Amino acid sequence: MQENPEVSSLSYEQARDELMRVVAELEQGASTLEQSLALWERGEALAQRCEDWLIGAKARLDAARAATQTSGQPTE
């Protein structure tokens, strides 16, 4: 079994892909309750990481739109 990287170091795509693997593994049924709980906790952390990335992306888009409306020109 490979070691799980720290969730906070994952990109959106990495967190999303791992979350999909965690969900698939949970749906198949882990062999013990302890493993299922560990997977669930990892999944929750991954879902939060994805949400944080999306919130950050939305904030950047909102800021870019506001700057464009203020200056009348797109920002780089």
Q: What does the secondary structure layout of this molecule look like, with pairings?
A:
Blueprint: H1 12-28, H2 33-71
Helix pairs in contact: 1-2
Short description, anyone?
This protein has 76 residues and is mainly alpha-helical. The protein has two helices and no strands.
Can you characterise this structure?
Helix 1 (12-28) packs antiparallel against helix 2. It is rod-shaped, with a radius of gyration of 18 Å. It is 74% helix and 0% strand. The N and C termini lie far apart (43 Å). The mean pLDDT is 89. It is an all-alpha fold. It contains 2 helices and no strands. 9% of the residues are buried. The chain has helices at 12-28, 33-71.
Radius of gyration: 18 Å
Give the number of helices.
2
Oligomer: single chain
Structural class: mainly alpha
* Strand element count: 0
Strand content: under 5%
Rounded mean pLDDT score:
89
Shape: rod-shaped
- Tell me about the largest β-sheet: none
How many angstroms does the end-to-end distance come to? 43 Å
What level of helicity do the residues show? over 70%
**Run of helices and strands:** HH
Poorly predicted sequence stretches spanning 5 or more consecutive residues: none
Entry keywords:
76 residues, mainly alpha, 2 helices, 74% helix, 0% strand, rod-shaped
